[in-house]
Design a protein that fits this description.
The protein has 553 residues and is of the alpha+beta class. Among the domains are: 169 residues, Beta-Lactamase (2-Layer Sandwich), CATH 3.30.450; 156 residues, Heat Shock Protein 90, CATH 3.30.565. Helix content is 59%, strand content 16%. The strands form three sheets. It has a five-stranded mixed β-sheet with strand order 6-8-9-11-10, with helices on one face.
Length: 553
């Protein structure tokens, strides 16, 4: 029977999903088993945990037993070495000068005493026989003829020990292994040639090697420690511990079984409570839906307000543009009359009035220009025309517009910035407007004899920074937000003394933010004001800075 390709293609996705479905089935079955047979599941888990704990304890006890065996073997070795040293210096050296022979064959030779190595091995074996069956051996690759049977390298361990200790005599060599069916620790240290032994070994007629030097490895001292008794004790203790833990586990399971039966009753009551809670949640969801609809109404109202504000900005921009045309004519004609361009004016009062008209017109034109700039930015129709700007030249251009006003008011302007500053990528006209607005404000609110300081610096991590600080009348900290708001006049009593529209600082902040920067104003009434403008680091132009202007104006 032929197979429809479309049916085969439709079957493949279901086959691809089968593993996921199998996992979901296993998970569901596990959850059902836990819910229906919690005691059995808990018993299995606890037994597994008990097995892991017992295995871990066995590993720890084995490691502890090995460490203790190593420590015991080291102590035995150190004791035999010390005994051999004392015996050599205090006994052998004394009797040798009196003609008493010191030999391995001391039993057969009357009046002789054993060699230090022979006596050390005897002492080690007797101590081991009385305690735990520890044995000591002394062997070498160059045994004397009478010790070839027992003093040579007769197995793999002795050969490995000789090979390793010959290269590193200061480091012990050991291995845990079975010997004659008994687990043992074989601990070997290098037996090096001492000064009193060199001449004896080199001059002895039966010596297999006659070119010994001080420090050469003469042989290997091995301590063999049986581990059967410690292992048996460790296993018995582990069995007792496991039995105790099993009893405690069964007791705990009994208590848990009682608790689980109680929890089942509590779960039934909780199920009833959950149903009541579900009905309450449904009621709460209906109330939330009502609140959501209310919020949607508020959002719609907010959007309408945004649209209205945008329309207001467009209207202000349109009106400002329309007002500038006749105002420019008024300013032009009043300036012609004030300057008597076409001849003298008959009455001096007319000249005075025309000057007042021109001054008021200029003030009104500045206000209209500020409103127009703000409206353009708000409506999104004011783009940045960026270029590479020389900082020193930008500051000089701003000072050319503000310097005369400062000089007339008796205000000193100080400059403080490095000789070399990187160029700034920004809108040249708007940067000039930012600096002129801030310097003009500082000069306007500083009395005669005061000072305005313009600082500038640049760092690769923080970007360009301009800071204008004055010693003027200052602003109370709580009035700073008002000073940064549009048409904000901090103190109405000063309105006649310091003319202004209240748009200078807000417009400056908007221009700075248009460049991705920030404007920070710090002030204190009667002390002065500091305005800090920061342009982001990505606006730094990587080129050598230009020489700046210095001095006071």
């Amino acid at each position: 029977m032929a197979t429809n390709p479309a049916e085969g293609a439709a079957a493949r996705p279901s086959e691809a999903k089968r593993p996921l479905g199998t996992f979901a089935n296993i998970w569901a079955a596990s959850r059902r088993l836990i819910y229906e047979r919690p005691f059995a599941v808990l018993l299995v888990l606890l037994l597994l945990a008990l097995a892991v704990i017992v295995w871990h304890m066995y590993r720890q006890q084995a490691a502890r037993m090995e460490a203790q065996a190593l420590q015991s073997a080291k102590q035995m070795t150190d004791a035999l070495v010390e005994f051999r040293t004392v015996y050599t210096s205090e006994v052998v050296e004394r009797v040798r000068h009196r003609g008493i022979p010191v030999t391995h064959d001391y039993v057969r030779i009357e009046g002789a005493i054993p060699l230090p190595a022979t006596l050390s091995m005897m002492l080690g074996n007797r101590i081991g026989a009385q305690e735990n069956g520890t044995q000591t051996r002394l062997y070498s690759a160059f045994p004397f003829p009478w010790r070839r049977a027992e003093g040579g390298l007769d197995d793999a361990f002795s050969k490995d020990a000789w090979a390793i200790l010959s290269k590193k005599p200061s480091t012990p060599f050991y291995r845990f292994e079975e010997r004659n069916g008994v687990p043992v620790l074989r601990y070997a240290t290098a037996d090096t040639m001492r000064a009193p032994c060199v001449d004896c070994h080199n001059s002895h007629p039966d010596s297999p090697k006659t070119d010994w030097k001080i420090g050469d490895v003469r042989g290997v001292m091995e301590v063999i420690t049986p581990l059967s008794v410690p292992l048996l004790q460790s296993r018995l203790g582990l069995i007792e511990t496991a039995a105790l833990m099993l009893l405690m586990t069964l007791g705990g399971l009994s208590i848990i079984g009682i608790v689980l039966s109680h929890l089942r009753r509590v779960a039934s009551e909780a199920n009833d409570l959950a149903q009541k809670t579900h009905r309450a949640n449904e009621k709460l969801e209906r109330e939330i839906e009502e609140h959501r609809q209310t919020n949607e109404s508020l959002i719609a109202a907010r959007e309408q307000a945004v649209v209205a504000n945008h329309a207001k900005s467009e209207f202000l921009a349109f009106m400002s543009h329309e007002l500038r045309t006749p105002l420019n004519a008024i300013n032009g004609f009043s300036e012609v009359i004030k300057n008597e361009t076409f001849g003298p004016v008959g009455n001096a009062k007319y000249r005075e009035y025309s000057g007042a008209i021109h001054e008021s017109g200029q003030h009104l034109l500045g206000l209209i220009n500020d409103i127009l700039d703000l409206s353009k930015i708000e409506s999104g129709k004011d783009d940045l025309h960026e270029s590479k700007i020389d900082i020193a030249a930008a500051i000089k251009a701003a000072l050319n517009l503000v310097g005369q006003h400062a000089e007339q008011g008796g205000v000193r302007i100080d400059l403080d910035y490095p000789d070399l500053l990187p160029d700034l990528r920004a809108d040249k006209r708007k940067l000039k407007q930012i600096l002129v607005n801030l310097l003009s404000n500082a000069v306007k609110f500083t009395d005669s004899g005061g000072a305005v300081t313009l600082k500038a610096w640049c760092r690769m991590d923080s970007g360009h920074v301009f800071q204008i600080a004055d010693t003027g009348i200052g602003i109370a900290p709580e009035d700073i937000p008002k000073a940064l708001s549009r048409f904000g006049q901090v103190d109405g009593a000063l309105a006649g003394q310091y003319q202004g529209t209240g748009l200078g600082l807000p417009l400056t902040r908007v221009l700075v933010e248009q460049h991705g920067g920030t404007l920070d104003l710090q002030s204190e009434a009667g002390v002065g004001t500091t305005v800090t403008v920061r342009f982001p680091a990505e606006r730094i132009v990587a080129s050598a800075g230009k020489r700046s202007l210095h001095g006071n104006i």
